Description:
Number of strands: 10
Structural class: alpha/beta
Strand content: 25-35%
CATH superfamily: P-loop containing nucleotide triphosphate hydrolases
Distance between the termini: 34 Å
Strand order of the largest sheet: 6-7-8-3-9-10
Number of domains: 1
Oligomer: single chain
Radius of gyration: 17 Å
Helix content: 25-40%
Amino acid sequence: MLEVTGLHVAYGGIQAVRSITFHVKEGETVALIGANGAGKTSTLKAISRVLDAVGGDVHFCGEDITRLAPHHVIRKGIALVPEGRGVFPRLTVLENLHMGAFIRNAAVDVEKDLKMVYNYFPRLKERESQLAGTLSGGEQQMLAIGRALMSRPKMLLLDEPSMGLAPIMVQKIFEVVRAVAADGMTILLIEQNARLALQSSQRGYVMESGEITLNGESAMLLDDPKVRAAYLGE
Length: 234
């Protein structure tokens, strides 16, 4: 579904991503792990076109999207859940969710998907009329994921969904991530908790200093001595 070839991202003279190549198959959850500053977030931003790539190509469902405008990438079926959640704090939960459906016209389908989001996240239904800025961090993360799902994407890009959350909320978020994946969603996941990321995915890529240094089945990476020493605290 997603083919990234020779992707290169730079900020001024700083090379954040150095000609990386990887792919994600339809229906897969693929983890991208690495230390802070490894280039993971820059990779997602380049795929979603929030950030311009200096070089390389990105193909989605067989189509070159490397130079598309961000709103066209969304229409193609890629939804980014950004690091830090990025909810609209002065809008209600319901208004935020409707913002996620801005590319869609059929009100009946939007309402159907709203029920789907509430099924994944019952707490959002309870907070429907509450301003997003008054929600807890975990609730805002639920809202950010729910808003992305409202665009009815083919693929979710998740950037650090557990960041800053209490363990019980992390567990809840990842229960939903796995449920969404089980329902057929294709997911590219960045997660600082490498163990959790690999346990929640089929395959993984390890990034170091802007380059992919290791890749394979998630179970294999969990057993790899280098990964265990560098990212699993062993």
